[in-house]
Write the structure tokens for this entry.
Amino acid sequence: MGHPPLEFSDCYLDSPDFRERLKCYEQELERTNKFIKDVIKDGNALISAMRNYSSAVQKFSQTLQSFQFDFIGDTLTDDEINIAESFKEFAELLNEVENERMMMVHNASDLLIKPLENFRKEQIGFTKERKKKFEKDGERFYSLLDRHLHLSSKKKESQLQEADLQVDKERHNFFESSLDYVYQIQEVQESKKFNIVEPVLAFLHSLFISNSLTVELTQDFLPYKQQLQLSLQNTRNHFSSTREEMEELKKRMKEAPQTCKLPGQPTIEGYLYTQEKWALGISWVKYYCQYEKETKTLTMTPMEQKPGAKQGPLDLTLKYCVRRKTESIDKRFCFDIETNERPGTITLQALSEANRRLWMEAMDGKEPIYHSPITKQQEMELNEVGFKFVRKCINIIETKGIKTEGLYRTVGSNIQVQKLLNAFFDPKCPGDVDFHNSDWDIKTITSSLKFYLRNLSEPVMTYRLHKELVSAAKSDNLDYRLGAIHSLVYKLPEKNREMLELLIRHLVNVCEHSKENLMTPSNMGVIFGPTLMRAQEDTVAAMMNIKFQNIVVEILIEHFGKIYLGPPEESAAPPVPPPRVTARRHKPITISKRLLRERTVFYTSSLDESEGFKSLGLRGPFPGSERVFLLQTFVCGVILC
């Protein structure tokens, strides 16, 4: 089981559990940083110590073998499984070629050391800077808050207002620092899958091709490299798609943090101070409180433990809640509650006036209810006009633009997209738009189609079936995966199933021209996964499942003929192989377990360039660390284009 996602909403609460989970991420970051340093150190040793080459390879192999990827979520995609197993495969391969005394190519440092060093300095180093800012802003905020809460309510109103503004400013700065830090540390955790593996993969490719005695080994390695490169590219595409959704969620959290509540969580939770009376006077004790409105249960966890005694959480059942009059107590933001378990009144102090208002609202106290305004994008419907719009878009795309390079990936102008949608969905004359007009280019039409589908009041594949579809995509039994999705398609409402068939048939036609438009089923899955499917809740955990939404769409495209030939025989239960039949499961790609053959020594300088084009069939341009592969393959004579 991997690390649980860090929800942006936890940044606002800053609970002890959030801090503990964040600490796990920080430990993993340090482990990764140390691992990268080890790889860089061992790689340099391999390049410089040619006389001790065999022992250097052995050490490097052991370093790779020892590392295991941690991941976010509960399941890996097939591509992520390939990536997770890749270091083990690399290590086995290095042990195999140890006796062949292979030599490093002169540009090994550019292939391995520099990309890892850049990732460590730019990504991990930047994350550590975010951590420092997060800790500094947190220390400043809580220090100011403690002083602020001890202000007397008898001070001048202007002084109190000024103090409130200062606390709100520091709270906002700390919240933003927390959001930025959580976003960055999760991004590094996810992106390391390809940013660490890619340089090692490029390094190995160069290592094997540079030695004329291992040409046959290189020929064996190329198919594995191609498959792993595709897995890396697919994982990168899934990552980019997920990152866009997470950036939107982060933006919404900044605008209204209290509106993004997670299902199954308490109605409200946060820090409160409790007035406790002792023989020698009164003290205020800090608690982390969680209130569940349905059961009226208030759970209070003490933050300041008494010497010699460990206090556990205290569960109380609320009877009523009322605001405390300012003139009756020398503290601000106070309210009183009564519970079934404790006699008398309990006085609580919130962190601010707005915070007290939220607690009062949750507890049905005598305090005006406040709701933050929430803006919502205008939703579209799956109706006759919508079907007409989709059919018109598909018709013009398949007639004039199906061979357009980057079809659906290249976005149109927002102004033109809105203009087309407003014209077509005009209530006065819906559908009265000439798509052959020169104003509507192909990228405007494809962007408009995606916008319409993404802004339906309910996604095409419905909220009701979302979890079942994602669960099916997570199965490692390939037969069950296909059978379950086949069955679930026929559980969709009729108009949804009709729309889905219309769209998937079109995407199949697009993919049939992938040589011209470069849009494969995998690419179309990345684009239409978040468009045709989406979770009902806005959470980081839901965003992490986008890669499985992409896989569902990819399966629909690849198996369109079988799925839409008709419903399965038993639509209520997806087909499962008979008990004595071995299930067809995904197996990680491998090179170390291949059948070895008797090698012949060749003395050729490099692979033929045209063969590189034919064997890999990849096209650029490639951003960021993928440029490493361009340099590496140029030296080896195998060019990725």
User: Anything to note?
Assistant: The chain has three domains: 12-250, 267-363, 384-565. Residues 267-363 form a domain with the PH-domain like fold (CATH 2.30.29.30). Residues 287 and 427 are 55 Å apart (CA to CA). Residues 368-378, 577-584, 599-641 have pLDDT under 50 and may be disordered.
